[in-house]
Design goal:
With 285 residues, the chain is α+β, with helices and mostly antiparallel strands. Among the domains are: 21-139, Acid Proteases (Cathepsin D, subunit A, domain 1), CATH 2.40.70; 212-284, Ribonuclease H-like superfamily/Ribonuclease H (Nucleotidyltransferase, domain 5, 2-Layer Sandwich). 19% of the residues lie in helices and 32% in strands. The chain is built from seven helices and 14 strands. The chain has helices at residues 21-26, 100-105, 152-158, 164-173, 187-192, 253-268, 281-284, and strands at 34-38, 44-46, 52-62, 69-79, 82-89, 96-99, 109-113, 116-121, 124-132, 135-139, 212-219, 230-236, 242-247, 274-276. β3 and β4 (69-79) form a beta hairpin. The radius of gyration is 31 Å and the shape is elongated.
Amino acid sequence: MSKSKDPPKPTTSDSEAFITDEINAMVSKQSHGIFYLDSGAGRTIVNDLTLLVDPTPVKKKIHTFSAPVNVTHQGTLDFKGIKLYPVYYVPNGPVSLLSVSQLCDHGLKLTMKSNVFIIKYENQIVDVFQREGNLFVSKLPSTSVCSVINAPSDWHLTLGHPSDLYIKTLLREGRIKGNFTQSSSCQVCQIAKIRNCPHSQELPRADAPFLKIHMDTLQINPPTCKGYKYVLVLIDDFSWFNRVYLLSEKAQAEDQIKSYLNEIKNKLENTPVYLHTDRGGEFSS
C-alpha cells in the first residue's frame, strides 16, 4: 500500500501572500471594492488600481496554492482612514485580500464576535467583516478613492506632530513619500514646547509652619493586601512636611484630618488657618 504524498508547496523567495483555492472557486468574476480578510496573506492585494495612492510599476509574482499571479504595481491603500503600505495590484485577481498580519503591523487590533471580525484602531472601530460562508467580507464605499497628501507638512499633522527623527525614519523605510519639513515651522509644536514658566512671580507661600495645609485623597488601584483603597495626603505649605494615611474608604478621611489637626494643636499650640483642597466630597461633607 503506497503512502499518500503531500501536495507540493510553492518554492519561491518572494512568496509574500497566498490566495486560497476557496476564494478562486467562490468568485467566478472580478469583484471590485470587495475585501476578503486573509490571515495567510503576507501583504494586502487589490484588483482595482484606483484604490492605490501613487502606484509605482513593479514586476513581481505571488505564488498561490493554485497558480502564481502577476503584480504590476504597488502603492498605499487608504482603507477607511488607515494607510497601508505596501499594497500590491493584481490585474487578474478575482477579489482584493486584506492581510491580517499587515493590519497588526500598522497598529490595528482584530476581535472576533458573533461571526464578525471587528477591526479597531486606538479603540475606534474602523471596519466590520461579515461572515459569508467560510470567509469574512467587507466592501469599500463606492466613493472610496485614496486622497494624496502632497504637502510635506500634512504628514507632520496627520501623524500627530511627531519628532523630525520619526518622520525621517518613515521616509527612509519607504512607509511614506514626500519631502521633509522641520517641525520648527509648526506653530503648535512651538507652543507645546515652551519652557517658560506661566507665572512671572511665585505664588504666595505661608510664612510659618502649619499655617496652610494642602490635602488630597488618591485612589489605589489595585487595593493593598490589607484592603486599603485610598491615600490621604497632607502637606504643610511652609516646610513641605507631609503626612500620609491609608484609608479603606473615603469617609474615613474626616476622622484622620481631625486627628491630624488635634496633633498639631497639642504639640505646637497652633491651629492651621487655611485648608487647601479640591472641594471633594470627603472634605465638604
